Amino acid sequence: MRKIKKVFDVVVMGFGISGLSAAVTAHQNGSKVAILERAPKSERGGNTRYTESLWRMKNHNAVSDDFQDRFSENSGGWPDPDIVKDAVLDKENQPSVLRSLGMVDPELIETIANEAPKCLQWLTQFGVNFDFLPTYFLSQSTTRMAPVGGGLALVEALGNYVDENPEGISVFYETVGRELMTNEFGDVIGLKGLSKGNKPFEIFGRNIIIASGGFQGNPEMLSHYIGPRSQFIRPVSRGGHYNRGEGIKMALKIGAAPCGDFGSFHAQPVDPRATNTEPVILNYAYGILVNDSGNRFTDEGPAMVDASYEVVTRIIMEQRQGIAFAIFDNGLEDIENWSISMRSNIPPFTAPSLEELALLINVSPVSLQDTIKKFNASCPNQHGFDPMTLDGLSTIGLDPKKSNWARPILRPPFRAWPIICSNCFTFGGLKIDNRSRVLNTEGDVIPGLYGAGEVAGLYYRVYTGATSVMRGAVTGRLAGLDANLRGHNLITGVHE
Known about the structure:
27% helix, Flavocytochrome C3, Chain A, domain 1, 6-stranded mixed sheet, 20 strands, 12 helices, alpha/beta, FAD/NAD(P)-binding domain, 2 domains
């Protein structure tokens, strides 16, 4: 077994936004850092490399007005009020069952909200510019900023810093951690893993930061936690295939508390034929959705698309073959800039008649024509159609109804885009505090162990949009700062 004899101040698993933020922050504050990355150097960056990297912010200095409200709505089922009442107590006086409870800590959400603007300003020091850029949503229910150049700009900016500081930051590519090492006091002191060619190694660090993403690239974990329907989903981008859950599993093995919804994930509707990054199909709300039997199965327009697409996409996953088709007539052209919500690099199926369209998508022509006939008959008067707002144009007497943007499908040519459910990232992970320290099942800090980004369980049921890369950067920064401080204290003999 190869042993990396040098003891690092901080060892980071992962080269995405959370790992990079942790590593660079720790190094800027004086730590010697090692980064382990499963991907080769040419593909470093994890999910971040391929995302738009939207931030739920109203300007450079503040998160969106609905930030904490949306998180509180999706913070974890129906917790026991008899236990949650103790949340008003100081952390040290809270019962252990509350500190380790599988629900999002309001203090952590508040910390992310407070630290996000500082983190954004920190990133600008590396040449990253943030702005209100066009998104793939025709209309939006909240405010979103993004780095110019997307997530790749973040990876390249922080990656350049890493490359320019080889004396202080060592990077081990095509390397993955498999097992945490602890001392007799339960402190995490290093990890074992594999490097290229299935070669085992050991690396030692005063602090270990797990920032290796979720488990969307691990079919065994997906089947175990999400269920057999997971066969119909795939990572939304190439980076997701590198996220196989080892960081989560090794921490759970030594007693870390789980948090987040292990049975759920951030779902995005994509074209299964497409070869480009994040090929989302988000204008389905202005047509209808049918399954492979040619039948409608859900309300296509229950709310603004940016607030409802995840729920709709999960329903697509539940269809017999995990696929649906978004059907339109030429009325799509009435919608200004409709193409921005279609990111597939493959054109739709197009035909002069519904019968011919049905044959192209391998759906019964009789079923499709009957479905559209019933839909058309239920559509109201078209006065007031407005794709930018909830226009209230709802079907009448149709089950399932379409709550908004219901217009008859009459005008050729007819078009269809196939849609499947993709997995942007998984929700289940580790319980962390507002310093990104991992807690054990007794609610106590595991000394020397930190979790950041997707590794930290933060979401339940549905995703609070435009917060993932933000929480990755913030929790990575918090981990890097605290790990540096802890490492300094260990060297100087100072105890918290």
